[in-house]
Amino acid sequence: MAEAAVLTHGRARATALAARYYTDPEIYEREKRAIHFRTWQYACHQSEIAQPGDYVAFDICGQGLFALRDREGAIRVFHNVCMHRGHELVEGSGNARVLRCPYHAWAYELDGRLRAAPHAEKVPGFDTSTICLTGAKVEVLCGFVFVNLDSEAKPMGDWYPELEHQLRAYVPAIDSLRPVLTNAVPEACNWKVSVENYNECYHCRVTHPTFSTGVVDPNAYDIRPQGHCLRHTTVAANLERMTYPVDLTASDHAGQYSSWFLWPGFSFQVYPGSLLNTYLWRPDGVGHVDVYRTWYTAEGAPSGTIERLARQDLDTTVAEDVRIVNAVQRGLGNIGYRPGPLVVDPNFGVNSEHSIRTLIDWTLEALGES
Predict the structure, then answer these.
(1) DSSP string of 52-90?
(2) What is residue 218's predicted lDDT score, i.e. its pLDDT?
(3) Per the CB 3.0–4.6 Å rule, which of 140, 156, 260, 279 could disulfide with 267?
(4) How many beta carbons lie within 10 A of that of residue 102, not counting itself?
């Protein structure tokens, strides 16, 4: 049995993962194939590819991809590589009537079929109908486009049950939302260090005074597994102590906070007042991850409240978490470290690390070590 799996499901005591799961490049390479290339990953918001020909390029652990809207209005995701000799097809975002490779000008239709290849008529038997870009599995959830590189993957509804219903209850206007502000934050840690830190509030009172007194009530904080989702719930801090104005008429849950972490690397987060933001984790090597925090408003309209809340969040909770995860990664490289027991309360609650045990179980299961 694997060293890290000694105390997980049904065992006497749960223990943190061994340091090598966060520091060993070989384990990271295994995770790429076993986890990141076989799970649902965020691509873009559908408003970013609103018109036929609109595209957005993105990356999943070194795999270049792009999302686009085809001529019939369908959203597609393709691997960002020409089928000729491997040149990338697009960069950034834009609009294209035809996808033309910048190397040898092979041209593809918006549905991925090869349209033309210069001088191909000189090649006996060259058949454009047999050549097509490599596509990936796509789902759109409340306007958010997700992709799975595993063609046999189960639908998002199987992975994350009740998610859409709950999101719509907390954010009734979600279909009108558009991204308005993104903060990209590099972290010098393994992606799992950052994800684990996000998914427990055992540390909130110690390290997040603004969040714990001016946004949420930590005493009511709870996290429960929901498929391969970790559902966070609590209520707003005392309204007189809130650091921003809360519209309690925004939804039936406007006085509450909730987060849905979709393993392995995306989260919907609804602040009191039904304000939506998202977290996106993009691993870049064994010891680095970029975290993108995006805020949304109706039709992308400017909002002073969102701007102030995003700045407050960046200056307090986000900055505090960056210090934490970077320090943890340094500590995991210390030869004196030995994985300690997790604090797991059978009744859950804010001071329990049962969510960390769940994340460890999912990781080990995917790696075939459970």
Answers:
(1) TTEEEEEEETTEEEEEEE-TTS-EEEEES--TTT-----
(2) 67
(3) 279
(4) 12
User: What order do you get walking across the sheet with 137-141 strand by strand?
Assistant: 41-45, 144-148, 137-141
Single-letter residue type at 137: K
In one-letter notation, the amino acid at residue 184 is: A
Q: Tell me: the pLDDT tens digits for 213-244?
A: 555 566 778 889 999 999 998 876 666 666 77
* 275: exposed, middle or buried (Cβ count in 10 Å: 0-12, 13-18, 19+): buried
User: What is the pTM for the complete model shown?
Assistant: 0.92
How many residues are present in the chain? 370
CA angle, 79 then 82 then 85, to 5°:
130
Residue 185 neighbours by CB under 8 Å, 6+ apart: 290, 291, 292, 293, 314, 318, 322
Over residues 178-201, mean pLDDT: 96
User: What is the model's pLDDT at position 244?
Assistant: 77
Task: Please name which of 3, 2, 11, 1 lies closest in space to residue 357, comparing C-alpha atoms.
Answer: 11
Single-letter residue type at 88: E
Mind giving me the DSSP string for 272-289?
Answer: TTTEEEEEEEEE-STT-E
User: Percent of the chain, pLDDT > 70?
Assistant: 89
Mean pLDDT of 236-255: 79
3-state helix, strand, coil in the chain (%, to 5): 30, 30, 40
Total Cβ atoms within 10 A of residue 335: 5
Q: What tokens appear for 114 in the block?
A: 């090869």
Peptide bond into 264 cis (omega under 30): yes
Please name each of the domains of the chain with its CATH number.
Answer: 3-39+162-366 (3.90.380.10), 41-148 (2.102.10.10)
Closest to 292 measured CA to CA, from 133, 186, 141: 186
